[in-house]
Fold this protein.
Amino acid sequence: MKKSVFYYLFAVICTVCLFTACSDDDDDNKILTVDNIVGTYPGDLDVTLAGTEVAKDVAASIVVTRVDDSKVKVSLSNFTIPGVLPVPMTIDATCDVVPSTNELKLNGQTTIDMSALGMGELAVVITGDADGKELDLDIAVATMKVVVDFEGRKQ
């Protein structure tokens, strides 16, 4: 009788130990929402003009704020490139947020006022992804053939 109780108890303990999940397994199945990517992302950006790199590893910070369950606002304030873009500018764009595997895709458009440089308003297209820890964005001004590649980590 004592042997069978011992074996039964041993079987229960082994079963519980085998089916206990590790805490890092839970992160793989986490469903990301807009709220997961809201925050400030300090990082670096690289700028190309007509395919030629004009600036590399420029320190910048992008702020992502919630608009609603499927949209965020992406803001890059006081953006300058020494020797290329002397006038500070701000880019604010509302982006659609679409779930993807382990990340959220961001897509948006806005305009920037470049009248101080005699160019008027220019269309800007923003694409990228965020996973709640990192933000990777491309900010493109097609008429000027400018692409700004930003990579940052959430504070």
About this structure: The beta strands are 39-49, 52-68, 71-81, 85-100, 103-113, 121-130, 134-141, 146-153. The radius of gyration is 24 Å. The helical segments are 2-18, 23-28, 34-37. The mean pLDDT is 84.
